[in-house]
Amino acid sequence: MRLSWFLTPTLVIVSAWASMFAGACKKEESRPPAAAPAPAGGVLHAVGPESSPVPPTLDKGWCSGHGVPESVCTRCDASLIPKFKAANDWCGEHALPETQCTICNPDVKAKWEALRPKEPGTTVPQPASPEEAPPKEGAGPGRGADAGTRDGGAPAPLGADARALFTGNDPACNVDRNQVRFLDRTILEKAGIKVEPVERRRVSATLECPGELDFDQTRLARVTPRVQGVIREARADLGQTVHAGEVLAILESPTLAEAKSRYIEARERYLLATADHERAEAVFRGTQHILASCEQTDSTQEMRERFASVKIGDAKSRLLKAHSQRELARAAFEREERLRQQELSSDRAFETARSNLDAAEAEFQAVHEEIAFSAERELLAADKALTIARSAMHVAERQLHILGLTEEAVALLDDDTDASLLRYEVRSPLDGHVVQRQAVVGESVSEEGALYTVADLSHLWLILDVHERDLVVLRPGLPVHFSPDALRGRRFAGEIEWISSQVDDRTRTVQARVPLANESGFLRANMFGTARIVLHEDDEVVTVPKDAVQTDGCCQLVFVQESDDTFRPRKVALGAAAGAYWEVRGGVDPGEPIVTAGSFLLKTEILKSSIGAGCCEVEPGR
What we know:
Blueprint: E1 10-13, H1 16-21, E2 62-63, E3 68-69, H2 81-86, H3 108-115, E4 179-182, H4 185-191, E5 194-197, E6 199-215, E7 220-223, E8 229-234, E9 241-242, E10 247-252, H5 254-294, H6 300-306, H7 314-341, H8 347-402, H9 407-411, H10 418-421, E11 423-427, E12 432-437, E13 444-445, E14 452-455, E15 459-467, E16 479-484, E17 492-495, E18 498-499, E19 509-517, E20 528-545, E21 550-551, E22 556-563, E23 566-571, E24 573-578, E25 581-586, E26 593-597, H11 599-606
Parallel strand pairs: 1-4
Antiparallel strand pairs: 2-3, 4-23, 5-26, 6-15, 6-20, 7-14, 8-10, 8-13, 9-12, 10-11, 12-14, 15-19, 16-17, 16-20, 18-19, 20-25, 21-22, 22-23, 24-25
Protein backbone atom coordinates (compact mmCIF):
# COMPACT_ATOMS: atom_id res chain seq x y z
CA MET A 1 0.00 0.00 0.00
CA ARG A 2 2.92 2.37 0.67
CA LEU A 3 4.03 2.18 -2.94
CA SER A 4 0.85 4.02 -3.84
CA TRP A 5 2.12 7.07 -2.02
CA PHE A 6 5.30 7.60 -4.00
CA LEU A 7 3.54 10.06 -6.29
CA THR A 8 1.52 13.10 -5.30
CA PRO A 9 -2.11 12.51 -6.19
CA THR A 10 -4.92 14.88 -5.40
CA LEU A 11 -7.92 13.03 -4.06
CA VAL A 12 -11.30 14.48 -4.83
CA ILE A 13 -14.21 13.71 -2.53
CA VAL A 14 -17.23 13.74 -4.78
CA SER A 15 -20.46 15.43 -3.95
CA ALA A 16 -22.09 12.08 -3.24
CA TRP A 17 -20.57 12.41 0.24
CA ALA A 18 -22.94 15.26 0.99
CA SER A 19 -25.94 13.01 0.70
CA MET A 20 -24.15 10.35 2.71
CA PHE A 21 -23.50 12.58 5.72
CA ALA A 22 -26.95 14.13 5.41
CA GLY A 23 -28.38 10.66 5.85
CA ALA A 24 -29.74 10.43 2.34
CA CYS A 25 -27.43 7.62 1.20
CA LYS A 26 -28.18 4.08 2.34
CA LYS A 27 -25.48 1.49 2.14
CA GLU A 28 -26.46 -1.86 0.74
CA GLU A 29 -25.65 -4.80 3.00
CA SER A 30 -24.48 -6.91 0.09
CA ARG A 31 -24.24 -6.48 -3.63
CA PRO A 32 -23.06 -9.08 -6.10
CA PRO A 33 -20.69 -7.91 -8.77
CA ALA A 34 -22.66 -6.41 -11.65
CA ALA A 35 -21.69 -5.92 -15.21
CA ALA A 36 -21.16 -2.36 -16.33
CA PRO A 37 -24.00 -0.80 -18.34
CA ALA A 38 -23.56 -0.89 -22.05
CA PRO A 39 -22.29 2.36 -23.51
CA ALA A 40 -24.32 4.21 -26.13
CA GLY A 41 -24.00 2.79 -29.54
CA GLY A 42 -22.66 -0.61 -28.59
CA VAL A 43 -22.36 -3.44 -26.08
CA LEU A 44 -19.65 -3.47 -23.41
CA HIS A 45 -18.47 -7.06 -23.52
CA ALA A 46 -15.59 -6.69 -21.04
CA VAL A 47 -14.99 -4.15 -18.31
CA GLY A 48 -11.48 -2.82 -17.81
CA PRO A 49 -8.74 -0.70 -19.39
CA GLU A 50 -9.36 -2.15 -22.85
CA SER A 51 -13.02 -1.03 -22.79
CA SER A 52 -12.44 2.44 -21.38
CA PRO A 53 -13.85 5.18 -23.62
CA VAL A 54 -10.74 7.25 -22.83
CA PRO A 55 -7.68 5.21 -23.86
CA PRO A 56 -5.33 4.91 -20.87
CA THR A 57 -1.78 6.09 -21.51
CA LEU A 58 1.26 6.54 -19.28
CA ASP A 59 2.44 9.77 -20.88
CA LYS A 60 1.28 11.68 -17.77
CA GLY A 61 2.53 9.07 -15.33
CA TRP A 62 0.86 6.69 -12.93
CA CYS A 63 -1.56 7.83 -10.22
CA SER A 64 -0.34 5.77 -7.27
CA GLY A 65 -3.04 7.18 -5.03
CA HIS A 66 -5.87 5.73 -7.16
CA GLY A 67 -4.19 2.87 -9.00
CA VAL A 68 -4.84 4.04 -12.57
CA PRO A 69 -2.91 6.11 -15.13
CA GLU A 70 -3.08 9.88 -14.61
CA SER A 71 -4.59 10.17 -18.10
CA VAL A 72 -7.87 8.49 -16.96
CA CYS A 73 -7.97 9.44 -13.25
CA THR A 74 -11.21 11.37 -12.80
CA ARG A 75 -10.46 12.14 -9.17
CA CYS A 76 -7.24 13.93 -10.09
CA ASP A 77 -8.64 15.50 -13.27
CA ALA A 78 -12.36 16.31 -12.95
CA SER A 79 -12.47 17.47 -16.57
CA LEU A 80 -12.47 13.79 -17.63
CA ILE A 81 -15.82 13.08 -15.97
CA PRO A 82 -18.03 14.38 -18.85
CA LYS A 83 -16.17 12.14 -21.33
CA PHE A 84 -16.91 9.02 -19.31
CA LYS A 85 -20.52 10.02 -18.68
CA ALA A 86 -20.99 10.71 -22.38
CA ALA A 87 -19.75 7.21 -23.13
CA ASN A 88 -22.20 5.81 -20.55
CA ASP A 89 -19.20 4.59 -18.53
CA TRP A 90 -20.10 6.02 -15.14
CA CYS A 91 -20.98 4.45 -11.76
CA GLY A 92 -23.21 7.02 -10.13
CA GLU A 93 -23.30 5.11 -6.86
CA HIS A 94 -19.53 5.31 -6.35
CA ALA A 95 -18.82 8.41 -8.46
CA LEU A 96 -16.17 7.00 -10.81
CA PRO A 97 -16.04 5.27 -14.18
CA GLU A 98 -17.59 1.81 -14.28
CA THR A 99 -14.40 0.52 -15.93
CA GLN A 100 -12.47 1.62 -12.82
CA CYS A 101 -14.99 0.68 -10.12
CA THR A 102 -13.48 -2.25 -8.24
CA ILE A 103 -16.51 -2.46 -5.96
CA CYS A 104 -18.95 -3.19 -8.75
CA ASN A 105 -16.35 -5.00 -10.85
CA PRO A 106 -13.66 -6.65 -8.65
CA ASP A 107 -12.03 -8.27 -11.69
CA VAL A 108 -10.80 -4.95 -13.07
CA LYS A 109 -8.43 -4.56 -10.14
CA ALA A 110 -5.91 -7.00 -11.61
CA LYS A 111 -6.30 -5.50 -15.09
CA TRP A 112 -5.38 -2.00 -13.95
CA GLU A 113 -2.60 -3.36 -11.78
CA ALA A 114 -1.08 -5.05 -14.79
CA LEU A 115 -0.58 -1.61 -16.36
CA ARG A 116 1.30 -0.25 -13.37
CA PRO A 117 4.95 0.46 -14.27
CA LYS A 118 7.39 -1.46 -12.10
CA GLU A 119 10.57 0.17 -10.88
CA PRO A 120 13.81 -1.66 -11.76
CA GLY A 121 14.82 -4.08 -9.06
CA THR A 122 11.50 -3.86 -7.22
CA THR A 123 8.40 -6.00 -6.99
CA VAL A 124 5.01 -4.36 -6.73
CA PRO A 125 2.63 -6.49 -4.64
CA GLN A 126 -0.78 -7.28 -6.00
CA PRO A 127 -3.47 -5.30 -4.15
CA ALA A 128 -5.97 -7.17 -2.03
CA SER A 129 -9.56 -6.40 -1.35
CA PRO A 130 -10.34 -4.60 1.91
CA GLU A 131 -11.50 -7.74 3.64
CA GLU A 132 -8.44 -9.67 2.37
CA ALA A 133 -5.86 -6.97 3.17
CA PRO A 134 -3.07 -8.46 5.32
CA PRO A 135 -2.15 -6.76 8.58
CA LYS A 136 0.66 -4.25 8.50
CA GLU A 137 4.17 -5.37 9.22
CA GLY A 138 4.78 -5.70 12.93
CA ALA A 139 1.11 -6.30 13.73
CA GLY A 140 0.59 -7.68 17.17
CA PRO A 141 -0.38 -6.45 20.62
CA GLY A 142 -0.11 -2.70 20.57
CA ARG A 143 1.03 -2.52 16.90
CA GLY A 144 -0.18 -2.88 13.33
CA ALA A 145 -3.75 -3.46 12.31
CA ASP A 146 -4.86 -4.69 15.72
CA ALA A 147 -3.66 -1.64 17.58
CA GLY A 148 -6.05 1.27 17.89
CA THR A 149 -8.57 -0.05 15.33
CA ARG A 150 -12.33 -0.18 15.19
CA ASP A 151 -14.35 -3.28 14.37
CA GLY A 152 -13.99 -4.11 10.73
CA GLY A 153 -10.28 -3.26 10.53
CA ALA A 154 -10.51 0.53 10.16
CA PRO A 155 -7.92 2.36 12.30
CA ALA A 156 -9.63 4.37 15.00
CA PRO A 157 -8.55 7.81 16.28
CA LEU A 158 -6.45 7.81 19.43
CA GLY A 159 -8.58 7.89 22.53
CA ALA A 160 -8.27 10.38 25.36
CA ASP A 161 -6.16 8.01 27.44
CA ALA A 162 -4.39 6.17 24.62
CA ARG A 163 -0.67 6.18 24.16
CA ALA A 164 0.93 6.73 20.77
CA LEU A 165 1.00 3.51 18.79
CA PHE A 166 4.43 4.33 17.40
CA THR A 167 7.21 6.50 18.73
CA GLY A 168 8.49 7.64 15.34
CA ASN A 169 7.54 8.07 11.70
CA ASP A 170 8.74 6.01 8.77
CA PRO A 171 10.94 8.28 6.60
CA ALA A 172 10.22 6.07 3.58
CA CYS A 173 6.48 6.62 3.90
CA ASN A 174 5.12 9.19 1.42
CA VAL A 175 1.68 9.55 2.92
CA ASP A 176 2.28 13.27 3.43
CA ARG A 177 2.52 13.71 -0.35
CA ASN A 178 -1.19 13.02 -0.71
CA GLN A 179 -3.80 15.74 -0.81
CA VAL A 180 -7.54 15.73 -0.08
CA ARG A 181 -9.73 18.25 -1.90
CA PHE A 182 -13.47 18.77 -1.53
CA LEU A 183 -15.51 19.74 -4.59
CA ASP A 184 -17.95 21.74 -2.50
CA ARG A 185 -17.21 23.58 0.73
CA THR A 186 -20.68 22.72 2.01
CA ILE A 187 -19.55 19.12 2.21
CA LEU A 188 -17.07 20.10 4.97
CA GLU A 189 -19.87 21.42 7.13
CA LYS A 190 -22.10 18.42 6.52
CA ALA A 191 -19.19 16.05 7.24
CA GLY A 192 -18.57 17.78 10.58
CA ILE A 193 -15.02 18.83 9.75
CA LYS A 194 -13.69 21.55 12.04
CA VAL A 195 -10.42 23.42 11.78
CA GLU A 196 -8.51 25.04 14.62
CA PRO A 197 -5.02 26.54 14.84
CA VAL A 198 -2.15 24.73 16.61
CA GLU A 199 -1.63 26.38 20.00
CA ARG A 200 0.84 26.54 22.83
CA ARG A 201 -0.72 25.43 26.09
CA ARG A 202 0.42 25.00 29.65
CA VAL A 203 0.10 21.33 30.43
CA SER A 204 0.98 18.84 33.11
CA ALA A 205 1.68 15.29 32.01
CA THR A 206 2.96 12.12 33.67
CA LEU A 207 4.04 8.72 32.45
CA GLU A 208 3.14 5.74 34.62
CA CYS A 209 5.27 2.60 34.73
CA PRO A 210 6.10 -0.24 37.15
CA GLY A 211 9.12 0.02 39.42
CA GLU A 212 11.11 -2.21 41.75
CA LEU A 213 13.45 -1.22 44.57
CA ASP A 214 16.99 -2.50 44.77
CA PHE A 215 20.03 -1.82 46.93
CA ASP A 216 22.19 1.10 45.86
CA GLN A 217 25.02 -0.82 44.23
CA THR A 218 27.48 1.96 45.12
CA ARG A 219 26.59 1.45 48.80
CA LEU A 220 26.58 -2.35 48.83
CA ALA A 221 29.39 -4.75 49.75
CA ARG A 222 29.55 -8.53 49.64
CA VAL A 223 32.26 -9.40 52.14
CA THR A 224 34.31 -12.43 51.16
CA PRO A 225 37.48 -13.80 52.81
CA ARG A 226 40.63 -13.46 50.74
CA VAL A 227 42.12 -16.71 52.01
CA GLN A 228 40.89 -20.21 52.71
CA GLY A 229 40.26 -21.03 56.31
CA VAL A 230 37.92 -22.18 59.05
CA ILE A 231 35.50 -19.78 60.77
CA ARG A 232 36.25 -19.53 64.52
CA GLU A 233 34.06 -16.52 65.34
CA ALA A 234 31.03 -14.92 63.65
CA ARG A 235 30.57 -11.62 65.43
CA ALA A 236 28.00 -9.89 63.17
CA ASP A 237 24.38 -10.95 62.82
CA LEU A 238 21.51 -10.12 60.45
CA GLY A 239 20.21 -6.57 60.80
CA GLN A 240 23.17 -5.45 62.89
CA THR A 241 24.58 -2.01 62.24
CA VAL A 242 28.30 -2.13 61.46
CA HIS A 243 30.95 0.44 60.72
CA ALA A 244 33.77 0.48 58.21
CA GLY A 245 36.71 -1.54 59.51
CA GLU A 246 34.68 -3.42 62.12
CA VAL A 247 35.51 -7.12 62.51
CA LEU A 248 32.65 -9.30 61.26
CA ALA A 249 34.26 -12.75 61.57
CA ILE A 250 37.57 -14.40 62.51
CA LEU A 251 39.14 -17.29 60.57
CA GLU A 252 42.09 -19.59 61.09
CA SER A 253 44.06 -19.73 57.87
CA PRO A 254 47.27 -21.73 57.20
CA THR A 255 47.63 -19.79 53.96
CA LEU A 256 47.79 -16.53 55.86
CA ALA A 257 50.27 -18.00 58.35
CA GLU A 258 52.60 -18.95 55.51
CA ALA A 259 52.34 -15.47 54.02
CA LYS A 260 53.10 -13.88 57.40
CA SER A 261 56.12 -16.15 57.89
CA ARG A 262 57.48 -15.26 54.48
CA TYR A 263 57.15 -11.60 55.29
CA ILE A 264 58.90 -11.94 58.67
CA GLU A 265 61.78 -13.81 57.03
CA ALA A 266 62.07 -11.24 54.25
CA ARG A 267 62.04 -8.40 56.73
CA GLU A 268 64.87 -9.99 58.77
CA ARG A 269 66.96 -10.36 55.64
CA TYR A 270 66.32 -6.74 54.83
CA LEU A 271 67.46 -5.64 58.28
CA LEU A 272 70.69 -7.68 57.93
CA ALA A 273 71.32 -6.25 54.48
CA THR A 274 70.79 -2.77 55.86
CA ALA A 275 73.37 -3.36 58.58
CA ASP A 276 75.87 -4.75 56.09
CA HIS A 277 75.34 -1.79 53.84
CA GLU A 278 75.91 0.67 56.66
CA ARG A 279 79.20 -1.10 57.60
CA ALA A 280 80.40 -1.18 53.99
CA GLU A 281 79.55 2.47 53.60
CA ALA A 282 81.49 3.37 56.78
CA VAL A 283 84.53 1.37 55.61
CA PHE A 284 84.40 3.07 52.25
CA ARG A 285 84.27 6.53 53.78
CA GLY A 286 87.13 5.73 56.21
CA THR A 287 89.24 4.21 53.47
CA GLN A 288 88.77 7.22 51.26
CA HIS A 289 89.81 9.50 54.14
CA ILE A 290 92.97 7.50 54.91
CA LEU A 291 93.92 7.23 51.25
CA ALA A 292 93.60 10.97 50.89
CA SER A 293 95.79 11.55 53.97
CA CYS A 294 98.49 9.22 52.68
CA GLU A 295 99.17 11.65 49.85
CA GLN A 296 100.21 14.28 52.38
CA THR A 297 103.66 14.48 54.10
CA ASP A 298 102.43 13.29 57.50
CA SER A 299 104.62 10.69 59.18
CA THR A 300 103.45 7.15 59.68
CA GLN A 301 103.26 7.72 63.43
CA GLU A 302 101.06 10.77 62.99
CA MET A 303 98.73 8.87 60.61
CA ARG A 304 98.52 5.93 63.00
CA GLU A 305 97.47 8.24 65.84
CA ARG A 306 95.02 10.21 63.68
CA PHE A 307 93.19 7.13 62.30
CA ALA A 308 93.29 4.99 65.41
CA SER A 309 89.48 5.18 65.71
CA VAL A 310 88.79 4.52 62.01
CA LYS A 311 87.75 0.90 61.49
CA ILE A 312 88.47 -0.32 58.02
CA GLY A 313 89.86 -3.72 58.98
CA ASP A 314 93.02 -5.26 57.53
CA ALA A 315 93.27 -2.58 54.89
CA LYS A 316 94.39 0.02 57.43
CA SER A 317 97.39 -2.06 58.63
CA ARG A 318 98.47 -2.91 55.11
CA LEU A 319 98.24 0.69 54.06
CA LEU A 320 100.18 1.97 57.10
CA LYS A 321 102.84 -0.70 56.57
CA ALA A 322 103.33 0.26 52.94
CA HIS A 323 103.40 3.91 53.92
CA SER A 324 106.05 3.22 56.59
CA GLN A 325 108.28 1.27 54.18
CA ARG A 326 108.02 4.05 51.65
CA GLU A 327 109.03 6.63 54.29
CA LEU A 328 112.06 4.49 55.37
CA ALA A 329 113.19 4.07 51.77
CA ARG A 330 112.85 7.78 51.18
CA ALA A 331 114.89 8.59 54.31
CA ALA A 332 117.66 6.13 53.27
CA PHE A 333 117.79 7.61 49.78
CA GLU A 334 118.02 11.14 51.11
CA ARG A 335 120.92 10.13 53.47
CA GLU A 336 122.88 8.41 50.64
CA GLU A 337 122.29 11.42 48.47
CA ARG A 338 123.86 13.75 51.08
CA LEU A 339 126.83 11.40 51.63
CA ARG A 340 127.46 11.22 47.91
CA GLN A 341 127.49 14.97 47.67
CA GLN A 342 130.14 14.95 50.42
CA GLU A 343 131.92 12.11 48.58
CA LEU A 344 131.46 9.91 51.61
CA SER A 345 129.40 7.25 49.82
CA SER A 346 129.87 5.20 46.75
CA ASP A 347 127.74 5.33 43.63
CA ARG A 348 126.66 1.76 44.18
CA ALA A 349 125.21 2.57 47.62
CA PHE A 350 123.41 5.56 46.16
CA GLU A 351 121.87 3.52 43.33
CA THR A 352 120.79 0.82 45.77
CA ALA A 353 119.04 3.40 47.98
CA ARG A 354 117.25 4.89 44.96
CA SER A 355 116.14 1.43 43.77
CA ASN A 356 114.76 0.64 47.22
CA LEU A 357 112.80 3.91 47.20
CA ASP A 358 111.28 3.17 43.80
CA ALA A 359 110.23 -0.30 44.98
CA ALA A 360 108.65 1.11 48.15
CA GLU A 361 106.78 3.74 46.09
CA ALA A 362 105.47 1.06 43.75
CA GLU A 363 104.39 -1.17 46.60
CA PHE A 364 102.58 1.70 48.28
CA GLN A 365 100.71 2.63 45.10
CA ALA A 366 99.67 -0.98 44.57
CA VAL A 367 98.37 -1.30 48.11
CA HIS A 368 96.64 2.10 47.77
CA GLU A 369 94.78 1.12 44.58
CA GLU A 370 93.87 -2.34 45.86
CA ILE A 371 92.37 -0.96 49.07
CA ALA A 372 90.41 1.71 47.18
CA PHE A 373 89.04 -0.88 44.71
CA SER A 374 88.12 -3.36 47.45
CA ALA A 375 86.29 -0.74 49.49
CA GLU A 376 84.28 0.38 46.47
CA ARG A 377 83.51 -3.21 45.45
CA GLU A 378 82.26 -4.10 48.93
CA LEU A 379 80.01 -1.02 48.96
CA LEU A 380 78.50 -1.93 45.58
CA ALA A 381 77.87 -5.49 46.74
CA ALA A 382 76.20 -4.19 49.88
CA ASP A 383 74.02 -1.87 47.77
CA LYS A 384 72.88 -4.76 45.58
CA ALA A 385 72.15 -7.03 48.52
CA LEU A 386 70.16 -4.26 50.20
CA THR A 387 68.09 -3.64 47.05
CA ILE A 388 67.25 -7.33 46.66
CA ALA A 389 66.31 -7.68 50.31
CA ARG A 390 64.13 -4.57 50.20
CA SER A 391 62.32 -5.81 47.07
CA ALA A 392 61.69 -9.24 48.61
CA MET A 393 60.29 -7.63 51.77
CA HIS A 394 57.97 -5.36 49.74
CA VAL A 395 56.68 -8.33 47.73
CA ALA A 396 55.91 -10.24 50.94
CA GLU A 397 54.26 -7.15 52.43
CA ARG A 398 52.12 -6.59 49.34
CA GLN A 399 50.97 -10.18 49.55
CA LEU A 400 49.77 -9.54 53.08
CA HIS A 401 47.92 -6.41 51.96
CA ILE A 402 46.29 -8.41 49.18
CA LEU A 403 45.08 -10.85 51.81
CA GLY A 404 43.49 -7.96 53.69
CA LEU A 405 46.03 -7.01 56.37
CA THR A 406 46.35 -3.30 57.13
CA GLU A 407 49.60 -1.36 57.63
CA GLU A 408 49.07 -1.46 61.39
CA ALA A 409 48.56 -5.23 61.38
CA VAL A 410 51.71 -5.77 59.34
CA ALA A 411 53.73 -3.56 61.69
CA LEU A 412 52.70 -5.69 64.69
CA LEU A 413 53.85 -9.00 63.24
CA ASP A 414 56.95 -9.05 65.47
CA ASP A 415 54.78 -9.79 68.47
CA ASP A 416 52.74 -12.53 66.77
CA THR A 417 52.69 -16.01 68.23
CA ASP A 418 52.03 -19.17 66.27
CA ALA A 419 48.33 -18.89 67.08
CA SER A 420 48.09 -15.28 65.97
CA LEU A 421 49.85 -16.10 62.68
CA LEU A 422 46.78 -18.18 61.77
CA ARG A 423 44.30 -15.43 62.68
CA TYR A 424 42.48 -13.76 59.80
CA GLU A 425 39.94 -10.98 60.48
CA VAL A 426 37.07 -10.32 58.07
CA ARG A 427 36.20 -6.61 58.26
CA SER A 428 33.36 -4.50 56.90
CA PRO A 429 34.40 -2.16 54.07
CA LEU A 430 31.65 0.39 54.76
CA ASP A 431 29.07 1.65 57.24
CA GLY A 432 25.71 -0.06 56.92
CA HIS A 433 23.50 -2.94 57.97
CA VAL A 434 24.07 -6.66 57.62
CA VAL A 435 21.39 -7.75 55.15
CA GLN A 436 22.72 -11.27 54.50
CA ARG A 437 24.79 -13.71 56.58
CA GLN A 438 26.28 -17.02 55.50
CA ALA A 439 28.98 -17.31 58.18
CA VAL A 440 28.71 -20.42 60.39
CA VAL A 441 31.28 -21.20 63.08
CA GLY A 442 33.41 -24.23 62.23
CA GLU A 443 32.65 -24.08 58.52
CA SER A 444 35.50 -24.22 56.03
CA VAL A 445 35.32 -21.32 53.58
CA SER A 446 37.17 -20.23 50.43
CA GLU A 447 37.70 -17.00 48.55
CA GLU A 448 34.63 -17.62 46.37
CA GLY A 449 31.80 -17.41 48.92
CA ALA A 450 30.52 -14.22 50.57
CA LEU A 451 30.19 -14.46 54.35
CA TYR A 452 28.20 -11.23 54.76
CA THR A 453 26.38 -8.65 52.66
CA VAL A 454 26.48 -5.14 54.07
CA ALA A 455 24.28 -2.37 52.62
CA ASP A 456 23.77 1.29 53.37
CA LEU A 457 19.98 1.48 53.55
CA SER A 458 19.80 5.28 53.72
CA HIS A 459 19.59 5.29 49.90
CA LEU A 460 18.04 2.76 47.51
CA TRP A 461 17.72 2.46 43.76
CA LEU A 462 14.35 2.47 42.04
CA ILE A 463 14.54 0.51 38.78
CA LEU A 464 11.82 1.50 36.29
CA ASP A 465 10.65 -0.59 33.34
CA VAL A 466 9.67 1.92 30.65
CA HIS A 467 8.16 0.79 27.37
CA GLU A 468 10.52 1.39 24.47
CA ARG A 469 7.92 3.54 22.67
CA ASP A 470 8.13 6.06 25.53
CA LEU A 471 11.85 6.64 25.12
CA VAL A 472 11.06 9.71 23.05
CA VAL A 473 9.82 11.53 26.17
CA LEU A 474 12.34 10.09 28.61
CA ARG A 475 15.51 11.92 29.71
CA PRO A 476 17.74 12.14 32.81
CA GLY A 477 16.63 14.68 35.37
CA LEU A 478 12.88 14.09 35.08
CA PRO A 479 11.14 14.03 38.50
CA VAL A 480 9.68 10.70 39.61
CA HIS A 481 7.13 9.92 42.33
CA PHE A 482 7.10 6.32 43.55
CA SER A 483 4.20 4.71 45.40
CA PRO A 484 5.06 1.25 46.81
CA ASP A 485 2.23 -1.26 46.70
CA ALA A 486 2.88 -2.18 50.34
CA LEU A 487 2.88 1.41 51.60
CA ARG A 488 -0.39 2.83 50.41
CA GLY A 489 -0.62 6.57 50.60
CA ARG A 490 3.15 7.13 50.81
CA ARG A 491 5.14 8.64 47.98
CA PHE A 492 8.89 8.96 47.57
CA ALA A 493 10.45 11.48 45.22
CA GLY A 494 13.59 11.30 43.10
CA GLU A 495 14.97 12.05 39.65
CA ILE A 496 16.03 9.84 36.77
CA GLU A 497 19.83 9.66 36.72
CA TRP A 498 20.43 6.86 34.20
CA ILE A 499 18.64 5.29 31.24
CA SER A 500 19.78 1.93 29.91
CA SER A 501 21.36 1.73 26.48
CA GLN A 502 19.63 -1.54 25.60
CA VAL A 503 16.09 -2.87 25.35
CA ASP A 504 15.10 -6.08 27.10
CA ASP A 505 14.64 -8.65 24.34
CA ARG A 506 11.74 -10.33 26.13
CA THR A 507 9.71 -7.50 27.66
CA ARG A 508 10.66 -4.79 25.13
CA THR A 509 11.20 -2.36 27.97
CA VAL A 510 14.08 -0.10 28.89
CA GLN A 511 15.35 0.25 32.44
CA ALA A 512 15.81 3.62 34.10
CA ARG A 513 17.33 4.24 37.53
CA VAL A 514 16.14 6.66 40.20
CA PRO A 515 18.04 7.07 43.51
CA LEU A 516 15.64 7.42 46.45
CA ALA A 517 16.41 8.65 49.95
CA ASN A 518 15.23 6.23 52.65
CA GLU A 519 15.58 8.34 55.76
CA SER A 520 12.39 6.94 57.22
CA GLY A 521 13.60 3.36 56.72
CA PHE A 522 10.25 2.21 55.30
CA LEU A 523 11.62 1.22 51.90
CA ARG A 524 12.93 -2.30 51.36
CA ALA A 525 14.79 -3.87 48.49
CA ASN A 526 12.60 -5.84 46.02
CA MET A 527 9.48 -3.81 46.84
CA PHE A 528 7.15 -3.31 43.87
CA GLY A 529 5.15 -0.22 43.13
CA THR A 530 4.00 2.33 40.59
CA ALA A 531 6.17 5.21 39.44
CA ARG A 532 4.87 8.39 37.85
CA ILE A 533 7.41 10.21 35.74
CA VAL A 534 6.59 13.92 35.55
CA LEU A 535 7.04 14.84 31.89
CA HIS A 536 5.57 18.33 32.20
CA GLU A 537 4.47 20.33 35.18
CA ASP A 538 2.58 23.40 34.00
CA ASP A 539 5.01 23.76 31.08
CA GLU A 540 4.14 25.67 27.92
CA VAL A 541 4.42 23.33 24.91
CA VAL A 542 3.02 23.03 21.41
CA THR A 543 -0.11 20.85 21.53
CA VAL A 544 -2.82 19.47 19.28
CA PRO A 545 -6.11 17.84 20.31
CA LYS A 546 -5.96 14.06 20.46
CA ASP A 547 -8.89 13.80 18.02
CA ALA A 548 -6.74 15.58 15.44
CA VAL A 549 -4.10 12.85 15.43
CA GLN A 550 -4.49 9.80 13.22
CA THR A 551 -2.15 6.89 12.51
CA ASP A 552 -1.80 5.06 9.22
CA GLY A 553 0.09 2.20 10.85
CA CYS A 554 3.58 3.66 10.47
CA CYS A 555 3.21 7.40 10.96
CA GLN A 556 1.39 9.86 13.22
CA LEU A 557 -0.62 12.32 11.11
CA VAL A 558 -2.56 15.55 11.37
CA PHE A 559 -4.34 17.18 8.46
CA VAL A 560 -3.24 20.75 7.72
CA GLN A 561 -5.62 23.03 5.85
CA GLU A 562 -3.86 24.46 2.79
CA SER A 563 -6.91 26.26 1.36
CA ASP A 564 -10.63 26.46 1.98
CA ASP A 565 -11.25 23.04 0.44
CA THR A 566 -7.79 21.39 0.42
CA PHE A 567 -6.10 19.43 3.19
CA ARG A 568 -2.76 17.63 3.35
CA PRO A 569 -1.60 15.00 5.87
CA ARG A 570 1.46 16.05 7.86
CA LYS A 571 3.72 13.72 9.85
CA VAL A 572 4.13 14.84 13.45
CA ALA A 573 6.42 13.74 16.26
CA LEU A 574 4.36 13.27 19.40
CA GLY A 575 5.55 13.72 22.95
CA ALA A 576 3.59 13.41 26.16
CA ALA A 577 -0.15 12.87 26.45
CA ALA A 578 -1.78 15.57 28.56
CA GLY A 579 -5.52 15.15 29.04
CA ALA A 580 -7.25 15.75 25.71
CA TYR A 581 -4.04 16.94 24.03
CA TRP A 582 -0.81 15.60 22.62
CA GLU A 583 2.47 17.40 22.95
CA VAL A 584 3.96 17.92 19.48
CA ARG A 585 7.74 17.87 19.23
CA GLY A 586 7.88 18.53 15.52
CA GLY A 587 5.90 18.59 12.29
CA VAL A 588 3.62 21.58 12.81
CA ASP A 589 4.12 25.08 14.15
CA PRO A 590 1.87 27.19 16.38
CA GLY A 591 -0.80 28.94 14.37
CA GLU A 592 -1.08 26.40 11.56
CA PRO A 593 -4.73 25.38 10.90
CA ILE A 594 -5.37 21.66 11.40
CA VAL A 595 -8.46 19.46 11.35
CA THR A 596 -9.59 18.79 14.92
CA ALA A 597 -12.90 17.07 14.15
CA GLY A 598 -13.50 14.76 11.19
CA SER A 599 -9.85 13.91 10.63
CA PHE A 600 -10.75 10.23 10.56
CA LEU A 601 -12.86 10.86 7.46
CA LEU A 602 -9.87 12.40 5.70
CA LYS A 603 -7.67 9.51 6.69
CA THR A 604 -10.10 6.96 5.22
CA GLU A 605 -9.87 8.79 1.91
CA ILE A 606 -6.08 8.38 1.70
CA LEU A 607 -6.17 4.82 3.10
CA LYS A 608 -8.96 3.29 1.06
CA SER A 609 -7.82 -0.28 1.63
CA SER A 610 -8.31 0.08 5.38
CA ILE A 611 -12.13 0.14 5.23
CA GLY A 612 -14.84 -2.05 3.72
CA ALA A 613 -16.98 -1.28 0.72
CA GLY A 614 -19.62 1.38 1.14
CA CYS A 615 -20.80 4.70 -0.14
CA CYS A 616 -17.48 6.32 0.83
CA GLU A 617 -15.39 3.71 -0.91
CA VAL A 618 -13.45 4.97 -3.89
CA GLU A 619 -10.98 2.27 -4.87
CA PRO A 620 -10.12 2.28 -8.57
CA GLY A 621 -7.36 -0.02 -9.70
CA ARG A 622 -6.64 -1.23 -6.18
